[in-house]
Write a structure and sequence with these properties.
Layout: H1 11-18, H2 20-24, H3 27-33, H4 38-47, H5 65-78, H6 80-92, H7 101-109, E1 116-118, E2 120-129, E3 132-142, E4 150-158, E5 164-172, E6 177-178, E7 193-202, E8 207-209, H8 211-215, H9 225-252, H10 268-302, H11 307-335, H12 345-356, H13 365-375
Parallel strand pairs: 1-4, 2-4
Antiparallel strand pairs: 2-3, 3-7, 4-5, 5-8, 6-7
């Protein structure tokens, strides 16, 4: 994407853009390994791209939301899987200032390049007995777990008094059994595998109430984790869609369709479709950045973004993901038979964007929730 003249650049964005060629040169290896190549992952970690939201006190960039979105978008434009992993791993750091200081220091203070990956729990529990916590369970869809240092394992904590409460257990990756469970085409390189634990001991300070991860508003943005994930994945969608549009423009320069006598670039239907795709992409991106900038302004001036603007951020992020899917679908159709081959970038973007839109943060039900809040049926504070 061409550099924006009206928005100021900053070191982290230039760093993200500088990785584009390095990332694209690794596309084949990313696909074949079904994860980020270890060397590439290590380079991204050491460069600081996983700690964009980490508080400065722990060695992070502590970026405001608009800058974070632009960084993730730039990485995802180079490759959707890499953008997804950097975004997924980066959002977890927003809660660092809400964790016990000892735990935050153990994770990031001792290793500012550390990455924490989380998975979806499947009948998982931690049991307290005689002051010792033992964790057992199965977790799926742990994006980035192959290059992570720690795993966040959600589970129900069964207390000695008979109580049950949801918690997040932070455990070293080497303490669990990594499986596979990632036989996909879209976002294939995220390495979103599964892991299991069987009666492993978790230190008391590594068991955190789940509300810290769901409700804590980190120092960088003043927003809860759910909205940061939505914004991050919206940025991923926009980056993928941008790559699709640019790939069609490149394809149209030379392609002459079968049984045709003129290049795609001379076809009026390509002109119309491309213009429509560009308009949809630009509108969705502008909406997301506008609301992100409002959130950053309110965070700076009032401490926390209001419920009303958080509602609109949910809407803008959902719209960015869903609209990016529509854009890529249009580009795929315009590309013709070239777009169906594994080695063509349009095909890759088509597969990746449909993995994004299947994710929970992109579900159309978010539109209903926002609409109910906007019309006054529900509280706007509950949408974020």
């Amino acid at each position: 994407m061409k550099a924006e003249k009206h928005r100021t650049t900053f070191p982290e964005l230039e760093l993200a853009r500088s990785f584009s060629e390095r990332i694209r040169s690794s596309e084949q290896e990313i696909t074949e390994r079904r994860e980020l190549p270890p060397q590439l992952a290590d380079e991204l970690k050491q460069a600081g791209l996983f700690r964009l939201l980490l508080p400065r006190s722990l060695g992070g960039s502590e970026l405001p939301l608009p800058k974070y979105i632009r960084c993730i978008e730039a990485i995802a434009e180079a490759d959707g899987s890499v953008g997804w992993c950097v975004g997924q791993g980066g959002v977890f750091t927003h809660c660092a200032d809400g964790l016990p200081p000892e735990l935050a220091n153990t994770i990031w203070g001792q290793n500012p390049a550390a990455v924490v990956s989380t998975g979806t729990p499947m009948n998982c529990k931690a049991v307290a007995t005689d002051g010792i916590f033992r964790l057992t369970g199965h977790w799926r869809f742990a994006s980035g777990c192959m290059h992570a240092d720690w795993l966040g394992a959600m589970a129900d904590l069964h207390g000695e008094d008979g109580s049950i409460s949801p918690v997040m257990c932070i455990v070293p990756k080497e303490n669990v059994d990594l499986g596979d469970g990632w036989n996909v085409t879209g976002l294939r390189g995220t390495g979103s595998r599964e892991y299991r634990a069987s009666d492993i001991v978790v230190p008391h300070g590594h068991i955190i109430p789940i509300n810290i991860f769901r409700s804590h508003c980190g120092v960088a943005t003043g927003l809860p984790g759910g909205l940061l994930f939505a914004s991050s994945f919206g940025a991923v969608g926009l980056g993928i869609a941008r790559h699709a549009i640019d790939s069609l423009i490149e394809l149209a320069q030379d392609k002459v369709p079968a049984f045709g006598n003129r290049k795609l670039m001379e076809d009026s239907m390509i002109h119309v479709g491309l213009a429509q795709a560009e308009a949809m992409w630009g509108s969705a991106r502008a909406f997301l950045l506008e609301i992100a900038e409002e959130c950053a302004y309110l965070h700076e001036t009032e401490g926390l973004p209001s419920g009303a603007v958080r509602t609109r951020l949910r809407l803008a992020a959902t719209n960015a993901m869903r609209t990016s899917g529509t854009v890529v679908d249009k580009i795929y159709e315009l590309a013709g038979s070239d777009g169906i081959f594994d080695d063509h970038p349009v095909y890759r973007t088509f597969q990746d964007i449909h993995a994004v839109t299947q994710q929970i943060q992109a579900r159309p039900a978010h539109f209903r929730a926002v609409g109910r809040a906007l019309i006054g049926l529900d509280s706007e504070d509950g949408v974020g």
